[in-house]
Amino acid sequence: MIILKSPEETEKIAESCRIVAKTLDYLKNMIKPGVTTKMIERQADQYIRSHSALPAFNGYRGYPASICASVNNEIIHGIPSNRTLEEGDILGVDVGVYKDGFYGDGAYTFPVGKVHADTERLLRVTEESLYKGIGNARPDNRVSDISHSIQAHVESNGFSVVRAFVGHGIGRELHEDPQIPNFG
Q: What is the domain extent for residue 98?
C-alpha cells in the first residue's frame, strides 16, 4: 500500500535525498584507479554524519557497511572491501541516509578512469532509461507505464534489464511501495 505523505513529511524525505545526492557528488572525485571501495565507504560515512544524518544501510538486515559499492558485474548490494579499483572498471554506489525520521536512497554508476566505448554506451543508455521512466511518472499514468518506457529504451539499444530487483518508494521506511520494476 502506498503511504501518502504530508508536505512536511515530503520535505523531510527531500532533505534526506539531498544529502544522498550531495554524498554521491562528493564521492565522484575520489573514484579513480588505485582507490579501494572501503576507502570510498569511509568517506561516505563521514560525509553523511557531517550532515547530522546516519548512513541508512549500516546494520539494515545485517548489512555490514554504510554504502553499497558494486564493481563491474555485481548488480547491487556489493560490500565495500579492500578491492582496488582499476582503470576501466565501473562502480555502482548506492547511498542511503536517515535523518529526522525519514530515509533517502539513491545510486549512481561511475566510470573508473577511462572506460571502453561499449561501457560508456551502457552508462549512457542506462541514464537515458532513468529519465524515460521519470518522464512517465505523471498523473493518470501507471507504474507499468514507467516500467515499460525503461525496458523499451534499454532493449531498443541492445541491452537487457535486471528483473530480480526493483526501484521503490521511500519514507519512514527504507523500502516502501510502490515497487517500480525496470520491465513491464
A: 1-114
Whether the CB-CB separation of 151 and 161 falls below 8 Å is answered with yes
pTM: 0.95
Domain finish residue from 93, 114, 135: 114
State whether 21 and 74 are in the same domain: yes
Name the pairing type of β-strands 102-111 and 90-99.
antiparallel
What pLDDT tens digit does each residue of the chain (184 aa) get? 999 999 999 999 999 999 999 999 999 999 999 999 999 999 999 999 999 999 999 999 999 999 999 999 999 999 999 999 999 999 999 999 999 999 999 999 999 999 999 999 999 999 999 999 999 999 999 999 999 999 999 999 999 999 999 999 999 999 999 999 999 9
CB-side neighbour CA atoms (13 Å) of 135: 10
Tally of domains in the chain: 2
> What sign has the CA pseudo-torsion 20, 96, 75, 157?
negative
Return d(Cα 105, Cα 67) in angstroms, integer: 10
Please indicate, yes or no, whether residues 27 and 106 belong to a single structural domain of this protein. yes
